[in-house]
Amino acid sequence: MTLVAVAAGKGAPGVTTTALALAAVWPRPAVLAECDPAGGDIVFALRRDDGAALAGDRGIVSLATALRVPGTGTDVLAHTQVVDGGLPLLVGVSSPAHANALSGSWRAIGAALAACEADVFADCGRLGANTVADDVLDACDRLLLVCRATPATVAHTRSILELIRARHPRLPLSLVVIGDADAPTQVAAALRGLGELDVLGPLAFDPDAAAGLAGRWTRRLDRSPLVVSARHLARAVDARLPHHRDVSPAAAAPQAAPLSEVG
After folding, report:
1. Do the domain assignments include residue 36?
2. Residues 191, 36: Cα–Cα separation, whole Å
3. Terminal CA-to-CA distance of the chain, rounded, Å?
4. Three-class SS string for the chain?
5. Which of 67, 156, 175, 255 could cysteine-pair with 259, CB 3.0–4.6 Å?
6. Full domain range(s) for residue 124
7. Is residue 250 part of a domain?
8. How far is Cα 67 from Cα 124, in angstroms, rounded to an integer?
9. What pTM does this model have?
10. Which CATH number fits the domain that encloses residue 65?
11. What is the pLDDT of residue 258?
C-alpha cells in the first residue's frame, strides 16, 4: 500500500503521538512502525491486546533478521504485535547503537514496509546528521514533518527542511503543525522564503489525550481534541497519497474494535 514517514527536527516534538494518532484513526488498515534511530519507547508505553507486555525483539529487529534470508518473501504483518485498541505495531530498536548495527538492513526494511498490504506509518523520530532513517525516507510515499508554533521549533524545522531537500529532493513532504487554530498560519509565515510548503493542521496539543493513547480507547478519548483533529488530518494526508492499486473490500475494512469506532 503506502508508506508515510513521520519525523521532526531537533527535539522531535510530538512525532510518536502524531504517528500513533494517525494510524489509529486511519480509514484503512494501518501499521505503526517504530523506525526512530534513537531507539523506540512505545514498548514501555503500550501493552498487547491481551494485556501482556510487548516483546522488544519482535518488530523491526525480527523483520531485519527475516530479510537477511535471500529470496524469501517477508510478511511484515507477521512481525507486528497488536496493541490494546487493535493497532498492529512493529516495535523499534532499543538504542542508537542497535539502529547502527542494522545499518545494512534499513534499505530492505524500507522496501518491505512500502510493500506491506496495509498502509504503514513509520515513526522516524528526530532527523539530523544520523543517516539511518534515509533508507526509510527513500522508500516512503510522503514525509510528514511535525512542527509546533514556537520560535525554537520553527528554527529547527527550517534547518531540517533544508537538509531533507538536499538529501531527498523528490520526496513529497507536508508540514504537520501542532497547536491551536492559528498555528498553521503562524508557521507558514515564519517559514516564508523556503519555497512552496504544504502546511497541514492543526493537530491539537492535547497532553491528556496523548497520554490516553497509551491505554484503552474510550469514548472520552474518541471525542478529545487530539482525536477529532487527527481525523481531519488523516483525511488531508490520505488525499495527498498515491493510491497505486485498488483497495479490495476486505482491505478497506476499518481497524479492529475499538479503533473501528474512530475511523
Report:
1. yes
2. 25
3. 18
4. CCEEEEEECCCCCCHHHHHHHHHHHCCCCEEEEECCCCCCCHHHHCEECCCCECCCCCEHHHHHHHHCCCCCCCCHHHHCEEECCCCEEEECCCCHHHHHHCCCCHHHHHHHHHCCCCEEEEEEEECCCCCCCHHHHHHCCEEEEEEECCHHHHHHHHHHHHHHHHHCCCCCEEEEEECCCCHHHHHHHHCCCCCCCCEEEEECCCHHHHHHCCCCCCHHHHCCHHHHHHHHHHHHHHHCCCCCCCCCCCCCCCCCCCHHHCC
5. 255
6. 3-243+257-261
7. no
8. 20
9. 0.90
10. 3.40.50.300
11. 33
Residue with cell 512502525: 33
Beta partners for residue 59, in sequence order: 91
Q: Cα–Cα distance between 146 and 173 in angstroms, integer?
A: 11
Strands 88-90 and 142-148: unpaired
CA 69-70-75 angle, 5° bins: 65
- Which tens digits make up the pLDDT trace of 195-207? 899 999 999 999 9
Q: Which three cell numbers stand for residue 260?
A: 473501528
Q: Could you tell me if residue 248 is inside a domain?
A: no
Cell numbers placing 254: 476499518
DSSP-assigned beta bridge partners for residue 194 = none
Confidence band, pLDDT 50/70/90 cuts, at residue 70: confident
Q: Is residue 252 domain-resident?
A: no
What domain count does the chain have? 1
Cell numbers for 198: 504544504
Give helix 106-114 / helix 60-67 axis angle, nearest 10°. Answer: 100
- Cα angle for residues 164, 14, 98 (degrees, 5° grid): 70
- For residue 166 the three cell numbers come to 538536499
Q: CA-to-CA distance for 177 and 199, rounded, in angstroms?
A: 7
Identity of the residue numbered 119: D
Q: Any bridge partners for residue 53, and if so which?
A: 47
